[in-house]
Amino acid sequence: MERNNITVSAPGKLMLLGEHAVVYGHPCLVTAVDQRMKATVELVDSSTFELEAPDVKVHNYKKSLPELGKGEIPKGAQFVEIAIKNFKEKYPFKDGVRVATASEFSSQFGFGSSSASTVCVVKALSELTRKKLSNKELFDIAYKTVLDIQGKGSGFDIASAIWGGTLYFVTGGEKIEQLSVDNLPLVVGYSGIKADTVTLMDQVLRKAKETPEVVENSYREIHLLVEKVNVQLLKQNWKELGELMNENQKLLNMLGVSIPKLDDMIAASIRAGAYGAKLSGAGGGDCMIAIVSPNKEQEVKKAIGSVGGTIIPVSPNAPGARIEK
Ligand code: MEV
User: Fold this and answer.
1) Is 157 a catalytic residue?
2) CB within 6 Å of ligand 1 — which residues?
3) Which of 58, 68, 205, 222 is most enclosed, with most CB atoms within 10 A?
4) Which residues of 74-85 are buried (b: 16+ CB within 10 A; e: fewer)?
5) DSSP-assigned states of every residue in 242-258
6) What is the mean pLDDT of each run of 10 residues along the chain (325 residues)?
7) In this structure, are strands 96-103 and 48-53 parallel, antiparallel, or unpaired?
């Protein structure tokens, strides 16, 4: 009998280095984390799309297939709905689609819940319709979905959800290289503030209009740091890596995307002995990351907590999108 439902999971991600610059043709380094998004996708004998996504407060959402992508779409349903529309347009099939998502991580952390759910749905449809798309083909549909909704974005989060592990990634998937990094000693602190990626990208764009040379120069410096970090990462040279992260944080401050709470958490972790620390992602809130030797881990975690951060226990380098059942 043909299978009509499947569960796919995809990891959340953390940007290690290169955020913002990666939107404009530069590289970044991203690692997948071991907290995952899951989507159960079912092909149904009706002309509807149905979604249950409790983590983003979407319940009993239903739409007819010809209406996909039209009218008001609740924020929590956008990525899944547009992903299905894009998949259907490129690889037509007649059935309706029922989706239920569940996440092991909060959509507040900036771990990329929207991109992970997009990837889960696209991969599930690829299996259910027997298209068996390659990772790059999955990437293209999922990345188009991000651009359709946000208008901009590098696609690094989509690549991380698909390939997993730790990636060297260039804008739009121009380069996607898997790096072999096993035991990256990472501590992650959540600021308690939800950041909106598009708002932060727009803020940087405005700054680029006002002071193009400052922003362009920051991007170029960030690009050089990514290349240097790539080397240190592969050599597992954590001290050097930490110092390069500190430099990246200075450049992110110049772009104006850090906030006092993140600065406090970063400074506290360095005072407590971290090799280096920076914000991770768009800035404006979400998480910071620190590179920490095992004998300093407890002190650094305590220090982040003492300035109001919450430690998120995640391991990097997690596997990419996979079929669960
Ligand atoms: C957001 O997590 C990272 C940005 O570089 C946006 C992107 O790469 O799509 C700001």
Assistant:
1) yes
2) 15, 19-20, 22-23, 153-154, 156, 197, 201, 281-282
3) 222
4) eebbbbbbbbbb
5) HHHHHHHHHHHHHHT--
6) 88 98 98 97 97 96 97 96 98 97 93 96 98 97 98 98 98 96 93 96 98 98 96 90 97 98 98 98 98 97 98 96 96
7) parallel
Instruction: Give the E-state strand segments of the chain in sequence order.
Output: 5-17, 27-44, 48-53, 58-64, 96-103, 166-170, 175-179, 186-190, 276-280, 287-291, 310-311, 322-323
Locus of tokens 């007819």: 64
Distance CA 49, CA 62 (A): 6
Q: Give the end-to-end CA distance of the chain in Å, rounded to a whole number.
A: 16
Rounded distance between C-alpha atoms, residue 24 and residue 5, angstroms:
38
From ligand 1's centre to the CA of 313, what distance in Å?
22
Please give the Cα distance from 8 to 12 (Å, whole number): 13
8 Å CB contact between 304 and 186: no
10 Å CB burial of residue 92 (0-12, 13-18, 19+) is exposed
Amino acid identity, position 242: G
Stated length of the chain: 325
Q: Of all atoms in ligand 1, which is nearest to the CA of residue 280?
A: 2
State how far the Cα of 166 lies from the Cα of 180, in Å rounded to an integer: 7
In angstroms, the Cα distances linking 12 to 50, 144, 306 are 24, 19, 26
pLDDT of residue 3: 77
What confidence score (pLDDT) does residue 188 get? Answer: 98
The per-residue pLDDT for 104 is: 94
